[in-house]
Amino acid sequence: MQYRRMGSTGLMLSALGLGSWVTFAGALDRGAARRLVARAFDAGINLFDSAENYAHGQAEALLGDVIADLRLPRDAICLCSKAFFGAAPEPRPTQRGLSRKHLREACDAALRRLHTDYLDLFLCHRPDPDTPVEETVAAMDQLVRAGKVLYWGTSEWPVERIRAALRCAREAGMTPPSVEQAQYNLLHRERVEFEYAPLYDEPGLGLIGWSPLASGQLSGKYAEGRVPEDSRQARRDHGWHPRMLPGDGRTQASSVARLQALAAAQDVAPAVLAIAWCLRNPKLSSALLGCSSQAQLEENLGALALAGRLDAATMAQLDALAGA
Ligand code: NDP
Q1: 88-121: per-residue pLDDT in tens?
Q2: Among 82, 211, 275, 277, which residue has the most ligand 1 atoms within 8 Å of its CB, making it the best to mutate?
Q3: Is residue 5 domain-resident?
Q4: What CATH number did the domain enclosing 85 receive?
Q5: How far is the CA of 237 from the centre of ligand 1 (A)?
């Protein structure tokens, strides 16, 4: 495994992390989730990601159960959770958003479900237009001061909103956000590479990427309109919807076809090449894998070695691919 600092913090994250969206309490039952987490930890993965809304809290609960069951050393792993959408299927107004009230209650609920007394990372899952950013920053600062959260951050916030949070924290002597969790893959890269670019060096924003395979699209298994029976698109697991796929159908098809050709030339699976491409971005602290099986995890771990040996010509072809 390779470890990278999370922006300008001292926290070392594994370059590949393991996520729990649509897989935990979805495709993976307890036994399979336990084996997956055990293998991920053995491979050096230290970042485990969840959120209050994943399977309405059940993903957090399953992740917490298997980590406790495996007795993973708490000081060797980083637990990340997120709040905004609410855990209830139809959350009431105070059960969602980024108010002081919901952030405190969501944090306490995450601690209970994950069987821990602190979260390494607690993220605001989306911006909340109904809550002043000052209230959110102060609520996160209080969670940090209370020892319930070590680092806080954002997910899919517009850069101007992140800047406002940074400014507010600086002026009030409060803890600033230190990481953004954003979609990052060959089909969706503008926000990470352009919008957030001014924030990486100063103030040193960390970056965690989600959906490195664009929900499995970049594995090539959906090529030519095929939808394998046991795939995310066929299952329509908790919270997944086709509108979450980046790009339009035609761009996707042509990009995936080109990726498949490049992967064949390297004698690797397209998924491995797509993840390796993400890892080549030096601003990326960690890419979160989603794995519905042990075999997928094994395959995807191969991206670490491949990233180190991709030559400039292949990187240029990959970089050109999304605009195909
Ligand atoms: P990916 O884009 O990597 O998609 C993962 C899915 O692709 C798997 O569940 C599996 O689905 C399929 N897959 C994975 N590896 C392979 C392979 N080698 N060959 C073929 N198919 C493969 O990641 P996710 O979309 O799952 O996102 C990763 C994590 O990021 C999430 O678990 C979550 O923690 C986080 N996230 C954060 C978001 C945010 O807003 N902050 C939003 C979304 C995710 P299947 O086998 O079922 O087809």
Answers
A1: 999 999 999 999 999 999 999 999 999 999 999 9
A2: 211
A3: no
A4: 3.20.20.100
A5: 11
